[in-house]
Amino acid sequence: MVFNDFTVKEELLKILPLKKRTRGEDIYNIFKTNAAEIGLPLKKLSAITTDAASTMKGRTNGFAAVCKKDECFPNLMSHHFIHQEALCAKILPFGHVMDIVTSIINIIRAAPFQHRLFKTLLEDYDYKMKNSRSHLASRSPMAQQSSLEPVASLFVNPITIRHEATETATTTARIISSEVGNHELEIVDLKNDIILQAHATDVDFWKLVEKDRFPLLRSVAYKIKSCFRSTYLCESLFSTMNNIKSKNRSRLTDSHLESSLRAGTSACVPKMEALVDEIQCKKSH
């Protein structure tokens, strides 16, 4: 969530258990029901980030697709990330490679003499690499630019842009292009403001932009900043859940699990003294 002063807060909102089916429509229904219960303003939602499961990223019946069909949701962007490392470990057979690497390491570490020879080889290789780096540093900038031409052509040629990137860019343009005329007027005023231009490269630039003078530009800045957040909280939730749901605690209720995850991942520091004062102490009889 992005606040008026452009500070960002990331916290666990709710864990929604699915007891039966896990279709995109089922996820959408339970999400919208709980959003109405807690009073979540869906109109302020700017982006949806999910994993690459078909129930999430399906073009027709996926969770993000069903949300975009609903008029209660604004023009939002959807991003689906995939754990490439996990796929590589499952698909690519690396057993024969690791066996060879392990045997080579065992041979090198078996005798001190072989270990010293290997260290000498690494030092000689490092010396050659230093010479190569100094040679590359002495090359002219034009030679370096010519070597980057194939890479630059990927960005210049619009045909190479993938469909997902095109869809994301189109959604971003649709968000920004609403009330284009008013946006252009605010952009002109922003460019003519000498004080703001002096701080144009500052990280906290948008904190200096007045809300009364540039409401539309600040609204766009809120949406764009909220899209580029980390997935650390989501990943840490699964790690914490694996530690909580051990073999000795396999019969946790949904509410107990949610409370444990909230306490384990929240950045808020509990006020222990206030919590203790609210509890009535047992008096001896």
From TrEMBL:
Domain HAT C-terminal dimerisation: 203-259
An MF annotation (GO) of this entry: protein dimerization activity
Pfam family, one: Dimer_Tnp_hAT
InterPro entries membership: HATC_C_dom (IPR008906), RNaseH-like_sf (IPR012337)
The protein's name: HAT C-terminal dimerisation domain-containing protein
